[in-house]
Design goal:
39% strand, Tumour Suppressor Smad4, 257 residues, elongated, six-stranded antiparallel sheet
Length: 257
């Protein structure tokens, strides 16, 4: 739990709403440069927050976000008052990102980290054909689909939910392996896997049926294989108001029509 007297830095997206909110906050609170801060206060939407987390991926300082966007799933409500008190009383959510290692048809290897999900998507009108291994054991010989994704609990309400994947409680220690518009096997709806699982996705006929791999905001095109596993060397800390934690939001999503 952050101490009430910790030094705060303020960052914001370049939208008019976030810029105005930042100016209002500066009237009520003192902020220090980013490199001198103990806690980072972020103003923006979920997209800005996701980019900020990636920019600070190897920075261990906690982030307290306030929503100046649309949904604000990863952020708290914006208020100018009692900022130090809110941060000192906030609940910390700590998690490890997914590491994607992708090999392309040209033999290049690319690595990237993901907070929400790693997704594989067909690049052309032809369906993708993907073979699935979990912990070096073949689990599905051929998935004919538009794509497939691996989602974290934090990202289970994002693209994973749109693809009809399950919502995962934060403390479940599992990942969602979710097909995107599966054609064969037609009734396969995906799998729930331990967070320690190592998932390997092999692209069948990659020249004829090209597939791209996306880790949150980084895309690698024309992949032949993609490995996804949790990166425990990196830990990210987000702070949430006690009355509206990320865990409560994810739980609540399961009861929204």
């Amino acid at each position: 739990m952050p101490h009430v007297n910790q030094k705060l830095a303020l960052v914001n997206s370049d939208t008019e709403i976030a810029t105005q909110a930042a100016e209002e906050l500066k009237k009520h609170h003192d902020f220090v440069p980013l490199d001198q801060a103990d806690v980072i206060v972020a103003l923006g939407g979920d997209g800005f927050m996701l980019h900020l987390i990636h920019d600070l991926m190897h920075d261990e300082r906690p982030i307290f976000g306030m929503n100046c966007g649309t949904v604000g799933f990863l952020l708290n409500q914006f208020h100018t008052d009692h900022l130090h008190d809110r941060i000192s009383q906030a609940e910390a959510f700590r998690f490890h990102p997914l590491k994607m290692t992708a090999v392309t048809t040209s033999g290049e290897t690319h690595a990237a980290l993901a907070i929400n999900e790693v997704s594989l998507l067909r690049e052309t009108r032809q369906t993708a054909r993907i073979r699935i291994y979990v912990d070096d054991r073949q689990r599905l010989e051929e998935l004919v689909c538009d794509g497939v994704l691996v989602a974290t609990p934090a990202g289970s309400t994002a693209y994973n939910l749109s693809a009809h994947g399950p919502i995962l409680p934060l403390n479940a220690d599992i990942l969602a392996l979710t097909p995107i518009s599966a054609f064969r096997p037609r009734r396969w709806r995906g799998a729930l896997l331990p967070q320690e699982a190592k998932i390997r996705l092999e692209i069948l006929q990659p020249e004829k049926r090209p597939v791209s791999a996306v880790a949150d905001i980084k895309e690698v095109r024309d992949v032949t294989s993609v490995t996804v596993e949790q990166d425990k060397s990196v830990e990210i800390t987000l702070l949430f108001d006690k009355e509206h934690t990320l865990e409560e939001r994810i739980l609540n999503e399961q009861f929204i029509n």
